[in-house]
Amino acid sequence: MKRFGFLAWALWFGYAFLYVPIALLVIYSFNESRLVTVWGGFSTKWYGELLNNEALLSAAGLSLQVAAVSATLAVVLGTCAGMALTRFGRFRGRTLFGGMITAPLVMPEVITGLSLLLLFVALEQLIGWPDGRGVTTITIAHTTFTASYVAVVVQSRLAGMDGSLEEAAMDLGARPAKVFFVITLPIIAPALVAGWLLAFTLSLDDVVVASFVSGPGSTTLPMVIFSSVKFGISPQINALATLMVLVVALGILVASVVMARQDRQRKRDEQMALQTG
Amino acid sequence: MRAVVSVLAAVLGRIGLWGRGVVVAIPFLWLMLFFLVPFLIVFGISFSESIIAQPPYAPLVEWLTDEDAGTNKLQILLNLTNYLRLTGDDLYILAYLNSVKIALVTTLMCLAIGYPMAYAIAKAPPARRGPLMMLVILPFWTSFLIRIYAWIGILKGNGVISNFLEWTGLTSGPVEILYSDWAVYIGMTYCYLPFMVLPLYSTLEKMDPTLLEAAADLGCRPFKAFLKVTLPLSLPGIVAGSLLVFIPAVGEFVTPELLGGPDTLMIGRVLWNEFFANRDWPVASAVAIALLLVLVVPIMIFQHVQGREAEGR
């Protein structure tokens, strides 16, 4: 009984450690006082100021655009990579391929950022593309490091899926491409959605790589947050953080409701199939 | 052109079906161009000389044409001064040692907090495990930058902890934890904790509970059973989690920049400053290569563990 007590405490401590800072952030976003640590009464004025902050809003727009495009590209690349690693057996260069997929997961961001920037500079010297740095280079950089995360998510879903469905379709004469689009894709769709969201979040969160590969005039939201946070605390950032937490919480809530509903639907279908068959 | 196409077709034909080849080729070529080639460029530029130009490094390979003698010479200049500077200047060596130290402390703190959490979740009733794990991963979905920012308000003088300590009468004045190594430890532990809990949970959850029952039947006390059975069996999870925390932590930039003091030297910060403040791209490249050398062994172990995990499924 005593051991259970320790574990429960450890669990509570862990959750408190994870959530108290976020809760404090939200609470102080409604603080009247500019001094974030002194409570000056309830106010929503920082939200109003946030909505009038042109620089921040345009950076947010740019970040959302980059995140959406790079997440979509990363899903395409990651799905191909996941298929190659789980379904194609041994092929030449597989070890190198597997290494290139997992290495970006742990690569320090400063190295990724520096190496991509040097590549872009060298390419510009050699072939004149990319012409300067900006949205395109940030998008390419984000696609590269988020594709690995998507590949891992897709790979684990593919590995956990029943391969006999694909074999059955193949036996019935479906071509590999048709098998993929009719059988495999619908089954791994949840992993693709999860991978897209993960890539989107990672892209929206990145400050280091973007700082290296961005050019004048293309400042992303994390870059704006980083430079304002560096000079201390500002209640506007608290307000922004609260909005972000709200969006994430809503997103997770919707996703889990949808997934639970799909799960129930699938179980019902299976039951029906068993009864009729 | 047709020859190229037929060679390409032959190559693809050898890999297997056309479609398969394309599916492999797309991510393969992308990663080659945007992951592998950039490293080679960094490696090359680390041997270059810093010059005042755009881009600010001297070319490694040059064609020298001598009009009088009518000869062409290919000149390759490899400059080792950048590496000599790294080994000659205490700043860099200290930064490396300090980065490894901070990453180690962070890993140990994540393990100390994360292991009991993962264990408790794995021991919870199956229906509750999903939501409990969800709560661990959830903060990961909110911005990393925002989570670091949250600690500024907590750790600074006149911040939440300082005010609380003053209120309880434990201290008489404001306590400044911010801008110290401890602030960096706390912030990094906070950010990397989910990476530790995830692999730990997945190994602990797979563990066969009858093993512990057998140990108990044979007269083993719970704590001893934990040390003799659970701990060794969860070792793969410990290794994977520790590497997932340690490797990115060594090269971390944002946390020490925002929470650390000016004397919190970390290699990621040194690289950043060489690049952005000093505009010395060759030295920044040399720092990156040296950082990779520090990380090459942990990354290889990680790849090995990851590969075994993937094949074990």
Write up what this structure looks like.
The complex is a heterodimer of chains A (277) and B (313). With 277 residues, chain A is mainly alpha-helical. Helices cover 81% and strands 0% of the residues of chain A. Chain A contains eleven helices and no strands. Chain A has helices spanning 2-28, 45-51, 54-87, 94-106, 109-127, 135-160, 163-171, 176-205, 208-213, 221-230, 235-276. In chain A, α3 runs antiparallel to α8 (176-205). The longest helix of chain A has 42 residues, at 235-276. Chain B is mostly helical. Chain B has two domains: 2-45, no CATH class; 81-312, Orthogonal Bundle (MetI-like fold). Chain B is built from 14 helices and two strands; from the N terminus they run ααββαααααααααααα. Chain B has a two-stranded antiparallel ribbon. In chain B, β1 and β2 form a beta hairpin. The relative contact order of chain B is 0.12. The interface between A and B is large, with 90 and 92 residues.
Features:
heterodimer, A: 277 residues, mainly alpha, MetI-like fold, B: mainly alpha, two-stranded antiparallel sheet, 74% helix, globular
Helix and strand run of chain B: HHEEHHHHHHHHHHHH
CATH topology label of chain A: MetI-like fold
**Main pleated-sheet profile of chain B:** 2 strands, antiparallel
CATH superfamily name of the largest domain in chain B? MetI-like
The geometry of chain B reads as globular
Instruction: Report the largest inter-chain contact.
Output: A-B, 90 and 92 residues
For the biggest β-sheet of chain B, the strand order reads: 1-2
Task: Estimate nothing, just give the exact number of structural domains of chain B.
Answer: 2
The proportion of residues forming helix of chain A, as a percent range, comes to over 70%
Radius of gyration of chain B: 26 Å
Q: What is the number of helical segments of chain A per DSSP (H or I, 4+ residues)?
A: 11
Q: pLDDT average of chain A, as an integer? A: 87
CATH top level label of the largest domain in chain B = Mainly Alpha
Overall CATH architecture of the largest domain in chain B:
Orthogonal Bundle
Task: Find the structural class of chain A using helix and strand composition.
Answer: mainly alpha
**Number of E strands of chain B:** 2
CATH class of chain A: Mainly Alpha
